[in-house]
Amino acid sequence: MSAAVYAMASDTLRDRLRPLCEADLEQVLMWRNAPEVRAVMYTSREITPAEHAAWFARLQRDPTKRTLIFDADGEPMGVVNFTRIDAASGEAHWGFYVRPGAPKGSGTRLGRLALAEAFGPLSLNRLIGEVLASNEASLRFHRKLGSEREHILRAHHRDGDTVQDVHEFSLTRASWLRARAADERAHAFSGDAS
Ligand SMILES: CC(C)(COP(=O)(O)OP(=O)(O)OC[C@H]1O[C@@H](n2cnc3c(N)ncnc32)[C@H](O)[C@@H]1OP(=O)(O)O)[C@@H](O)C(=O)NCCC(=O)NCCS
Q: Is Acyltransferase a UniProt keyword of this protein (predicted)?
């Protein structure tokens, strides 16, 4: 895993995750319906405003789901969804996207905070991500963040006439802690820790 992944650089000090609120809904629907985001989701058709509002209402009363907005330097830049949160087993799935046109590096910043949320406040032991085989950026992204591919779910996803494999990745709390400690040591050693 890259030493840059978990390092706390000065330009990321104002990054944060916060709960999705009603005022975010219009913007989030625009991002979610952008062609480049829809194309890599299980549900690739356009979501209507009514469906979006109903999803938000369900979210408020579902303890197995949490949706967070990623603010980068105070500006909304992406979305993180934790789903199938199982407090007993300490497992959950996650999904995410950055806003169309987000600066390079935004995904890594979002991912780093999402992992800290998963293994900190959410107290998970294992975080699972499912990625369409055609989504090269996300396959690489998961590996960059230290996730390991555990299974290939063959022909798991059908969208119209297209059938494709889904790659299931997971990251454990223990590996995340190890990687974070190694990055902190590397940065302390290189003098970047001040
Ligand atoms: C996946 C996603 C969040 C990455 O965000 P990003 O801002 O591009 O991420 P970064 O610039 O921090 O890049 C992180 C890593 O992702 C991978 N990556 C990002 N864009 C890539 C691309 N176009 N091609 C291949 N790999 C890419 C690389 O491994 C990259 O690390 P590197 O620059 O050190 O090689 C973003 O592309 C996105 O929102 N995609 C649409 C939604 C999506 O795919 N969600 C996940 C569904 S499983």
A: yes
Beta-sheet strands, E only, within 1-101: 16-19, 66-72, 75-86, 91-98
Q: pLDDT tens digit string along 26-55? A: 999 999 999 999 999 999 999 999 999 999
pLDDT in tens, 133-157: 999 999 999 999 999 999 999 999 9
Q: Name the residue ranges covered by the structural domains of the chain.
A: 10-190
> Which CATH fold would you assign to the domain 10-190?
Aminopeptidase (3.40.630)
Mutation probe of ligand 1 site: the residue of 138, 157, 167 with most atoms within 8 A of C-beta: 138
Residues paired with 130 in a beta bridge: 168
Cα 184 to middle of ligand 1, angstroms:
23
Using DSSP's 3-state secondary structure scheme, residue 112 falls into helix
Structure tokens at 93: 């799935």
